[in-house]
Design a protein that fits this description.
Length: 194
Amino acid sequence: MSQDPSTMVRFLPSSRSGQPTSPMKTRSAGALIGWALTGSLLLSTTSAVRGQGMLPGCRLENGSLQCVPGLTATPQQQIQVLDGEITRDQQAEGRIVQAIAGLKHFAVVGEARQRALLKAELEFNDSTIETLTIHWYRRSAKGHWQLIDSAGERTYVINADDAGSSVMAVLTVTTDQGKVLKTNSNAVGPIEGP
């Protein structure tokens, strides 16, 4: 019966303290501790990464996705998964449509260039609407929609801050029963320079 020398424990004659000495036991224990620490680090890294909304076994390092080989798919596959999630989030973000009874038409019309006037066109066929407001939003190529504070209610003049961005309007109505509903218009953009 042969044993792997790295797993054998051999006791050598006692040291001065009276305890048996074993270089192999020390090495094996060191290796065991190393493996335990590596496993703990991997588990804590995986938990921390999950807490950041990332994929298990991967972390973002200097703007690059680093994945543990064998634990997850290849980094390229992980990037494709993340790109898909980002695309779905952006699509959902731009789609806040709720059914507003009586709303026949809501759209932004105008040219996607600086100093152009955008108009929010809407057509209602319902008398149950108590109030309505229109807010304007802009989104850079890879950003989130942000409220444009300086915009008027039904019109918006595109300015230099909008260059390269898209602009849309969001209609908010309150019904005579106090229910608040929102829907977004089409997005206009990307906005061209002057």
